[in-house]
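User: Before I run my own analysis I want an independent prediction to cross-check against. Here's the chain; please return only the C-alpha coordinates and, at the end, one sentence I can use as a sanity check.
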Amino acid sequence: MGNNQTSFWYLENIDVLFCPKKMGNIDDNSHITKHFKKGEYIYWPEDISNKIFFITKGRVKIGAYSDSGKEITKAIIGAGEVFGELALTGEEKRRDFAYVMDNVSVCVVELAEMKALVKDHNGLNMFLLKIMGSRLLKMESRLESLVFKDSRTRIVEFIIDYVNEKGERVGYEMVVRKFITHQEIANLTATSRQTVTTTLNELRNDEILTFDRKRLLIRDFDKLKSEIA
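Assistant: C-alpha coordinates:
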Protein backbone atom coordinates (compact mmCIF):
# COMPACT_ATOMS: atom_id res chain seq x y z
CA MET A 1 0.00 0.00 0.00
CA GLY A 2 0.99 3.61 -0.47
CA ASN A 3 0.77 6.30 2.20
CA ASN A 4 -2.99 6.88 1.85
CA GLN A 5 -3.98 4.61 4.72
CA THR A 6 -4.09 7.44 7.28
CA SER A 7 -6.08 9.66 4.94
CA PHE A 8 -8.66 6.95 4.31
CA TRP A 9 -8.94 6.24 8.06
CA TYR A 10 -9.65 9.88 8.77
CA LEU A 11 -12.04 10.18 5.83
CA GLU A 12 -14.40 7.80 7.64
CA ASN A 13 -14.64 10.37 10.43
CA ILE A 14 -14.94 13.18 7.90
CA ASP A 15 -17.99 11.50 6.35
CA VAL A 16 -19.67 11.37 9.74
CA LEU A 17 -18.81 14.95 10.66
CA PHE A 18 -19.31 16.70 7.36
CA CYS A 19 -21.93 14.85 5.38
CA PRO A 20 -24.96 14.53 7.67
CA LYS A 21 -27.27 14.28 4.66
CA LYS A 22 -25.88 10.78 4.17
CA MET A 23 -27.25 10.05 7.64
CA GLY A 24 -30.67 11.51 6.86
CA ASN A 25 -30.20 14.99 8.35
CA ILE A 26 -31.78 17.06 5.58
CA ASP A 27 -32.03 20.26 7.64
CA ASP A 28 -28.30 21.04 7.62
CA ASN A 29 -27.27 22.77 4.38
CA SER A 30 -23.74 23.65 5.48
CA HIS A 31 -22.22 20.45 4.09
CA ILE A 32 -23.47 18.34 1.20
CA THR A 33 -22.25 15.65 -1.17
CA LYS A 34 -21.93 16.68 -4.80
CA HIS A 35 -21.11 14.66 -7.91
CA PHE A 36 -19.15 15.85 -10.94
CA LYS A 37 -18.56 14.18 -14.29
CA LYS A 38 -15.22 13.70 -16.00
CA GLY A 39 -14.16 16.86 -17.80
CA GLU A 40 -16.04 19.27 -15.55
CA TYR A 41 -14.43 22.03 -13.49
CA ILE A 42 -15.36 22.29 -9.83
CA TYR A 43 -13.99 25.81 -9.68
CA TRP A 44 -11.94 28.25 -11.76
CA PRO A 45 -9.39 30.96 -10.90
CA GLU A 46 -11.17 34.08 -9.62
CA ASP A 47 -14.14 32.09 -8.27
CA ILE A 48 -15.09 32.97 -4.70
CA SER A 49 -13.05 30.88 -2.26
CA ASN A 50 -15.66 29.91 0.32
CA LYS A 51 -15.79 26.09 0.33
CA ILE A 52 -13.53 23.16 1.20
CA PHE A 53 -13.84 19.83 -0.62
CA PHE A 54 -13.17 16.27 0.59
CA ILE A 55 -12.95 13.63 -2.14
CA THR A 56 -14.85 10.42 -1.47
CA LYS A 57 -14.53 9.03 -5.01
CA GLY A 58 -12.49 9.77 -8.13
CA ARG A 59 -9.56 12.07 -8.92
CA VAL A 60 -9.18 15.84 -9.24
CA LYS A 61 -6.39 17.82 -10.88
CA ILE A 62 -5.39 21.11 -9.26
CA GLY A 63 -3.62 23.55 -11.56
CA ALA A 64 -3.31 27.03 -12.98
CA TYR A 65 -2.66 28.75 -16.30
CA SER A 66 0.33 30.93 -17.11
CA ASP A 67 -0.04 34.34 -18.77
CA SER A 68 0.63 32.61 -22.09
CA GLY A 69 -2.18 30.12 -21.44
CA LYS A 70 0.04 27.13 -20.65
CA GLU A 71 -1.39 24.72 -18.11
CA ILE A 72 0.59 24.22 -14.90
CA THR A 73 -0.39 21.10 -12.95
CA LYS A 74 0.17 21.48 -9.22
CA ALA A 75 -1.30 18.23 -7.88
CA ILE A 76 -3.41 15.22 -8.78
CA ILE A 77 -5.40 14.01 -5.78
CA GLY A 78 -7.88 11.25 -5.09
CA ALA A 79 -10.22 9.67 -2.56
CA GLY A 80 -9.30 10.49 1.03
CA GLU A 81 -7.75 13.84 0.14
CA VAL A 82 -8.86 17.46 0.48
CA PHE A 83 -8.63 20.54 -1.75
CA GLY A 84 -9.75 24.15 -1.63
CA GLU A 85 -8.23 24.39 1.85
CA LEU A 86 -6.53 27.72 1.10
CA ALA A 87 -9.90 29.31 1.84
CA LEU A 88 -8.95 28.76 5.49
CA THR A 89 -5.79 30.87 5.08
CA GLY A 90 -7.63 34.00 3.95
CA GLU A 91 -7.75 33.33 0.20
CA GLU A 92 -10.75 35.32 -1.08
CA LYS A 93 -10.65 34.21 -4.73
CA ARG A 94 -9.33 30.97 -6.19
CA ARG A 95 -5.89 31.11 -7.75
CA ASP A 96 -6.16 27.58 -9.14
CA PHE A 97 -8.63 25.46 -11.05
CA ALA A 98 -10.00 22.09 -9.95
CA TYR A 99 -10.58 19.75 -12.90
CA VAL A 100 -12.42 16.40 -12.69
CA MET A 101 -10.27 13.62 -14.13
CA ASP A 102 -12.88 10.89 -13.72
CA ASN A 103 -16.33 10.87 -12.14
CA VAL A 104 -15.95 12.43 -8.71
CA SER A 105 -17.94 12.62 -5.49
CA VAL A 106 -16.97 15.32 -3.00
CA CYS A 107 -18.17 16.36 0.40
CA VAL A 108 -18.54 20.15 0.27
CA VAL A 109 -18.17 22.18 3.46
CA GLU A 110 -18.92 25.90 3.70
CA LEU A 111 -16.01 27.99 4.98
CA ALA A 112 -17.83 29.31 8.06
CA GLU A 113 -18.83 25.79 9.10
CA MET A 114 -15.31 24.53 8.45
CA LYS A 115 -13.81 27.17 10.72
CA ALA A 116 -16.17 26.13 13.50
CA LEU A 117 -15.32 22.45 13.02
CA VAL A 118 -11.59 23.14 13.02
CA LYS A 119 -12.00 25.07 16.26
CA ASP A 120 -13.93 22.23 17.90
CA HIS A 121 -11.93 19.26 16.56
CA ASN A 122 -8.18 19.24 17.16
CA GLY A 123 -7.78 16.12 15.06
CA LEU A 124 -9.28 17.87 12.05
CA ASN A 125 -7.05 20.88 12.61
CA MET A 126 -3.95 18.67 12.63
CA PHE A 127 -5.18 16.81 9.54
CA LEU A 128 -5.48 20.06 7.55
CA LEU A 129 -2.16 21.42 8.82
CA LYS A 130 -0.49 18.19 7.74
CA ILE A 131 -2.08 18.43 4.28
CA MET A 132 -1.00 22.04 3.76
CA GLY A 133 2.49 21.41 5.12
CA SER A 134 2.95 18.36 2.93
CA ARG A 135 1.92 20.26 -0.19
CA LEU A 136 4.25 23.13 0.62
CA LEU A 137 7.17 20.72 0.99
CA LYS A 138 6.28 19.09 -2.33
CA MET A 139 6.20 22.43 -4.11
CA GLU A 140 9.58 23.36 -2.63
CA SER A 141 10.99 20.00 -3.72
CA ARG A 142 9.66 20.48 -7.25
CA LEU A 143 11.21 23.94 -7.41
CA GLU A 144 14.59 22.61 -6.29
CA SER A 145 14.38 19.83 -8.87
CA LEU A 146 13.56 22.33 -11.59
CA VAL A 147 16.63 24.39 -10.72
CA PHE A 148 19.19 21.69 -9.99
CA LYS A 149 18.16 18.50 -11.84
CA ASP A 150 17.82 17.51 -15.48
CA SER A 151 14.53 16.49 -17.12
CA ARG A 152 15.11 12.73 -16.93
CA THR A 153 15.97 12.85 -13.23
CA ARG A 154 12.85 14.91 -12.49
CA ILE A 155 10.67 12.39 -14.31
CA VAL A 156 12.22 9.37 -12.55
CA GLU A 157 11.95 11.07 -9.15
CA PHE A 158 8.31 11.88 -9.84
CA ILE A 159 7.56 8.24 -10.70
CA ILE A 160 9.25 7.06 -7.49
CA ASP A 161 7.25 9.53 -5.38
CA TYR A 162 4.05 8.69 -7.23
CA VAL A 163 4.51 4.98 -6.63
CA ASN A 164 5.30 5.57 -2.95
CA GLU A 165 2.07 7.56 -2.56
CA LYS A 166 -0.34 5.70 -4.84
CA GLY A 167 1.19 2.27 -5.36
CA GLU A 168 0.15 -1.14 -4.10
CA ARG A 169 2.53 -4.02 -3.60
CA VAL A 170 1.71 -7.10 -5.66
CA GLY A 171 4.20 -9.82 -4.84
CA TYR A 172 7.63 -8.38 -5.59
CA GLU A 173 6.21 -5.67 -7.83
CA MET A 174 4.42 -2.33 -7.31
CA VAL A 175 1.33 -1.31 -9.26
CA VAL A 176 -0.40 2.05 -9.66
CA ARG A 177 -3.90 1.80 -11.05
CA LYS A 178 -5.40 4.59 -13.19
CA PHE A 179 -2.00 5.78 -14.34
CA ILE A 180 -1.91 9.42 -15.43
CA THR A 181 -1.07 10.54 -18.98
CA HIS A 182 2.37 11.43 -20.27
CA GLN A 183 1.23 15.03 -20.70
CA GLU A 184 0.14 15.20 -17.07
CA ILE A 185 3.55 13.91 -15.97
CA ALA A 186 5.16 16.53 -18.20
CA ASN A 187 3.04 19.26 -16.60
CA LEU A 188 4.01 18.07 -13.11
CA THR A 189 7.74 17.85 -13.88
CA ALA A 190 8.14 20.91 -16.15
CA THR A 191 9.27 18.73 -19.04
CA SER A 192 7.82 17.86 -22.45
CA ARG A 193 5.49 15.00 -23.28
CA GLN A 194 8.10 13.64 -25.69
CA THR A 195 10.73 13.57 -22.94
CA VAL A 196 8.35 11.72 -20.63
CA THR A 197 7.54 9.17 -23.35
CA THR A 198 11.22 8.65 -24.15
CA THR A 199 12.13 8.18 -20.47
CA LEU A 200 9.31 5.72 -19.81
CA ASN A 201 10.17 3.73 -22.93
CA GLU A 202 13.82 3.53 -21.84
CA LEU A 203 12.79 2.27 -18.41
CA ARG A 204 10.49 -0.28 -20.02
CA ASN A 205 13.28 -1.46 -22.35
CA ASP A 206 15.49 -1.92 -19.27
CA GLU A 207 12.70 -4.09 -17.75
CA ILE A 208 12.33 -1.74 -14.81
CA LEU A 209 8.66 -1.00 -15.42
CA THR A 210 5.80 -1.43 -17.84
CA PHE A 211 2.73 0.71 -18.41
CA ASP A 212 -0.41 1.35 -20.37
CA ARG A 213 -3.32 3.79 -20.04
CA LYS A 214 -4.79 1.87 -17.11
CA ARG A 215 -1.82 1.14 -14.88
CA LEU A 216 1.88 1.50 -14.12
CA LEU A 217 3.71 -1.65 -13.00
CA ILE A 218 7.13 -1.31 -11.38
CA ARG A 219 8.94 -4.59 -11.91
CA ASP A 220 12.12 -3.62 -10.04
CA PHE A 221 11.66 -0.72 -7.61
CA ASP A 222 15.24 -0.87 -6.30
CA LYS A 223 16.60 -0.63 -9.82
CA LEU A 224 14.30 2.31 -10.50
CA LYS A 225 15.62 4.13 -7.43
CA SER A 226 19.18 3.41 -8.51
CA GLU A 227 18.50 5.47 -11.64
CA ILE A 228 18.85 8.61 -9.54
CA ALA A 229 21.40 7.30 -7.01
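Sanity check: The first strand starts at residue 31 and ends at 36.
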